[in-house]
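Hey, can you fold this one?
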Amino acid sequence: MDTLVLSALSEQTLAFALEKAAAVLDAGHPVALPTETVYGLGADALRADAVLKIFEAKARPFFDPLIVHLPDPGWLEELTAIPPETRPLVDALVDRFWPGPLTLVLPRRARVPDLVASGLDTVAVRISAHPVFGAVARRFGKPIAAPSANRFGRISPTTAAHVYTELAGRIGLIVDGGPTTHGVESTIVAVEGDSLRILRSGPVTAEDLASFAPVQSAAFGAKLQAPGQLKSHYAPRTPLRLLDAGAPAPGPDARFGWLGFRSEPAGQGFGRVEVLSATGDLREAAATLFAKMRRLDEAGLDAIFAEPVPEEGLGIAIMDRLRRAAHQESSP
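Sure. Predicted structure:
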């Protein structure tokens, strides 16, 4: 299969890309699209045959549910059955954070295919704030199921070039909307009565949510209820090790990479060095995390050593991604 990349970076190219993307979605095929978090691989969320092609292209297991991106808030009633006691909290979160990087996990209606929800009785929904994704969703006129546009378990893509590296020959169309803004996937929250449980950390932090309701976080490796909860995920092919202390001294024959938060490692011997934010800005670090992990992964190294970031605010989401990327290295 040939993979076409269409630019949506100018007014002229955007109009053509929108028409083409909507036509491909309408034909039941997947399209890679930019969101404000990472690039997503989208298909008609109401057609199981279209959604199946997402799983096939990504080699994604069927037990891992998908996020459904809505064209507008009116679709929330079509796809979810919000309990009356939960309604005020859901409305408040939608008013504050949509469009934006907050995904809500709610009881689903029968209209949502089982394949989208991986057989669960809930569905994860959000509205993307990216102008290209939003325009495609409105032109298409129906919800779009869209996990990240990469091979399953691998580093999430933050540019169209990353998508091409991952999925060329597996999908027919990539819409290039430039680099993504946040760089890590959306926050996923289960709305449970009058409280919230964070299933995946992201750009909307626990502090952001605390003014709306009591907030808890799901334990690492908890029962799968949403995307991004597997212990090993977001992983490079090169073994990644999360440091508890200072950087090791590379051996004479080893080629190590360094993924630092704000500084380069002391000593010599690192074949490639990437720093997330020289100023210690967690938002900059999140925005560059996957791109710099990918550069290290493509450098032909023996191992990547990652420096922890402060676990506060957006740093919680960064550390979540690093722990999952490193888990395969620590697994028996």
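The radius of gyration is 20 Å. Let me know if you want another pass with a different chain boundary.
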